[in-house]
């Protein structure tokens, strides 16, 4: 009990004094996850729009594959990326294993199906609303996709935030492919896991504060986006 | 672009025969009003002529190539489809689609917003306006490209008297500035006020097609006779 109380006090102290390790790890976490989110959105959002607008041959197959991938345990994704990037693997020569790049790759694989799936659901709804009008106006395929992406932007933000939340809180995959190396690949979740196992609750808790704050920020933003949508602002 | 000719036109939905075979010629100018009982196939015929549903048989041809003809048509749907954008952006949308300069498109959109009495609501999201206001936006958005051919599907079906008067005035103006109009309505009074010719549809077939005066003075068929005298036609 005393340990815990001490830990909390120290954690607050670490947070308030912007402890160097704490800041370094938090920033790395943000950098990795935002990079992964950026890449994922580049793939997921256009893909979601294309899936909503176009009726092509493998559409059903892609959708079921995405759904299956969404259910893939992150640890398994980590394992697969590890095998692919390991020295003897097909991409071994790139030397990416145990770097933040490997972590970004793992996170992209984990969140792209999630973002695509959520985005596709809302864009499909929007498309059924717009369908007749856009067909009647002779819009090109590309104009349809652009219109959906723009008019569905709030829903797309929400989808992206869900991806961010998933990525920033993920531990299994990035532990495997990043290796949790101090000053190199250590991020919020892997650091919490390590510090906890070492019994150093102070840093673990401080890192936990940061993680919770980020999660709450995501929640509030999602909520706020929903409200602006209902109230018809921007 | 005129005459528009429908030749042996039929529409099936999932093996079910909906309309046809229909043979029809529409010449330039005037307002052709489609009337007929619920489920007769008015909406289907309008969409088929406009080219936004698949024909199971026959074709619709114009004096100009299909693509040119398509670009000079607009369609106003029974329940207005509003883009999730401001009133102004809704009005400017077809112009932007056609590659019009944004400045010019917005200027023209403002003129139309004023014309339909919505200057004060120009920057509000169109989805938040009343049914009558939405229908006026839909009509203005259809007219902003000065279409040679304008289709309307029961444009005033859910509107009150004041909004109906406004819509009819806009249609009369569009007609006098060179738009040929084909519209369906349930409102016999409206048909009498607006029609230059009447197309009476029953069971997916043309039951009668004649000049409006003749149609109302001496209804050409028994069903038409019953319909305009207010009897129920099945
Ligand atoms: N997509 C569809 N699927 C099945 N039936 C349809 C579809 N569209 C229209 N119908 C049927 O075709 C008939 C004509 O419909 P519609 O053109 O909407 O008539 P109207 O506009 O004259 O009331 C109706 O019996 C309707 O139920
Ligand atoms: Mg109808």
Textual characterization of the structure:
- The complex is a heterodimer of chains A (234) and B (234).
- Chain A has ten helices and no strands.
- Chain A is mostly helical.
- With 234 residues, chain B is of the alpha/beta class.
- Chain B has a six-stranded mixed sheet, sandwiched between helices. In chain B, strands 2-1-4 form a three-stranded antiparallel sheet, covered by helices on one side.
- The mean pLDDT of chain B is 96.
- The interface between A and B is medium-sized, with 15 and 19 residues.
- Magnesium ion (MG) binds at residues 42-43, 153 of chain B.
Query: Distance between the terminal alpha carbons of chain A, to the nearest Å?
Result: 50 Å
Query: Structural class, from helix and strand content of chain B?
Result: alpha/beta
Most extensive protein-chain contact, per-chain counts: A-B, 15 and 19 residues
Proportion of strand residues of chain B: 15-25%
Total helical segments of chain A: 10
The parts of chain A where pLDDT drops under 50 for at least 5 residues are: none
Annotated CATH topology of chain A? MetI-like fold
Question: What is the CATH H-level superfamily of chain A?
Answer: MetI-like
Bound molecules: adenosine-5'-diphosphate, magnesium ion
Q: What's the helix count of chain B?
A: 9
What is the count of β-strands of chain B? Answer: 9
Secondary-structure element order of chain B, as H and E?
EEEHEHEHHHEHEHEEHH
Share of helical residues of chain B:
25-40%
Beta-strand proportion of chain A: under 5%
